[in-house]
Amino acid sequence: MSIAPFHSLFPERAYKEIRSITVHGLRGLPDGQYGFLELYCIDPACDCRRVLIKETTQKITRMISDLSLIEPDSRWQSAFLDMAAEFAASGDGRYRAALTDFSAYRQRLTDDAHGDTLPAGRVRQTTYWGVADAQIVGCIHLRHDLTPALRQIGGHIGYVIRPAKRGHGYGTALLSQALDRARHMGLTRVLITCDVDNLASARVIEKNGGQLQEQAMIAGYTKMIARYWIDLSAAQ
Hints:
Elements: E1 3-5, H1 6-9, H2 11-16, E2 19-23, E3 32-41, E4 51-57, H3 58-66, E5 68-70, H4 77-89, H5 96-100, H6 102-114, E6 125-132, E7 135-143, H7 148-152, E8 157-161, H8 170-185, E9 189-195, H9 199-207, E10 211-216, E11 225-231
Antiparallel strand pairs: 1-3, 2-3, 3-4, 5-6, 6-7, 7-8, 9-11, 10-11
């Protein structure tokens, strides 16, 4: 049985129809507001017409409603550079090129997505920016294929959350939406890798259905790598 969240099928309607209850003084359940996430069977060969209701906290419900993926767009230059500066201030220079020449950086992302002028050994890669509350909270990269090197480390998907937004569940929500894009791209399963000691990333992968295949060392890398596969035809 294949399951899809209602919001991935009808995002506007899902936002309008979010159901929630406020709990106070109920034994065994912390006080607060709780939402209900509707999940639907989408297997064309199945006639169960099953609808599942999953409890989710107020924070996760809000993120599901607000977080969206966009492809790199110059209209979001200021927001992206704000995120890039935050990374730089934390000692992470991964977006140095964007801070130097945003237009050239964005064009490179577009070329990578289209497969234009890719060097030998590279595969097409579509980049998405995760947007919530008028901020870019993180980035995710979806590779269309795997090379032998990517099978060792990197996989189909890589993602990062800006420092100030870590620990709030954005990584889980970002990956969930990227998996929907991977399905629409025609992928039936995806490989994701992370350092074994990166417990936060491992939890994000596992929450999205990741099954640990192996942990291994690879030549030229100092840390042990965990390799996870996510079956995109499995229930979500």
